[in-house]
Write a structure and sequence with these properties.
The structure is a single chain. By secondary structure, the protein is α+β, with helices and mostly antiparallel strands. It has a domain of about 110 residues: Sandwich (Jelly Rolls), CATH 2.60.120. The protein is about 20% helix and about 30% strand. The strands form three sheets. It has a five-stranded antiparallel sheet with strand order 1-2-9-4-7. The relative contact order is 0.16.
Length: about 180
């Protein structure tokens, strides 16, 4: 009985194939050609500095008062050296209590990319076009190049992770 079923199926399949009109060959995709031509016309990528692995383990003694702001201690994560100056990453501890006269200065950074992540505590910021925003543990934000911004207030225990490209950049303080 099993042979009859398989023979019947084969016959039905053959009949269905005979009844179907012949298939046209599928049109060839131009996606590969487009990629090849785009690659050929794209400007060559600029030479990047040689990069190496950077490993940084938390140690309180690595926080230094040698950064941009006097009211902050910075723990460099070794990214600037490891990336040949392509990027910088550091953990920032803002020293409390917050003194708005010292902290709240409108400024911008001449960078290509800047991202901040709140590791601990909270910070209240102002960014041009956004206004005042309360950032707390787990909050993150990017600051587009040259966006005017300032810190308005922060908790005594705030720690921030900041990633900036390039590693060396200019900060411009603005007068109100």
């Amino acid at each position: 009985m099993a042979k009859r079923k398989s023979t019947a199926r084969a016959a039905a399949k053959g009949a269905a194939q005979k009844k179907s009109p012949p298939r046209k060959p599928a049109a060839k995709s131009t996606a590969r050609k487009t990629i090849k031509s785009a690659r050929a016309t794209a400007a060559p990528r600029p030479a990047r500095p040689k990069q190496r692995v950077a490993i940084s383990h938390h140690r309180d003694e690595d926080f230094r008062a040698d950064g941009l702001r006097a009211y902050a201690h910075y723990r460099d994560l070794g990214i600037a050296d490891a990336s040949g100056g392509l990027a910088r990453a550091h953990v920032i501890r803002l020293l409390g209590p917050c003194n708005p006269e010292e902290v709240s200065k409108l400024h911008y950074h001449d960078v290509e990319f800047q991202m901040v992540y709140v590791l601990r505590g909270w910070v209240k910021t102002y960014m041009e076009g956004v206004g005042e925003t309360m950032m707390q543990r787990g909050s993150s934000w990017t600051q587009p190049p040259r966006i005017r911004h300032m810190i308005l207030d922060y908790s005594d225990d705030v720690e921030l992770l900041e990633v900036i490209l390039p590693a060396d950049f200019k900060t411009v303080e603005l007068t109100a």
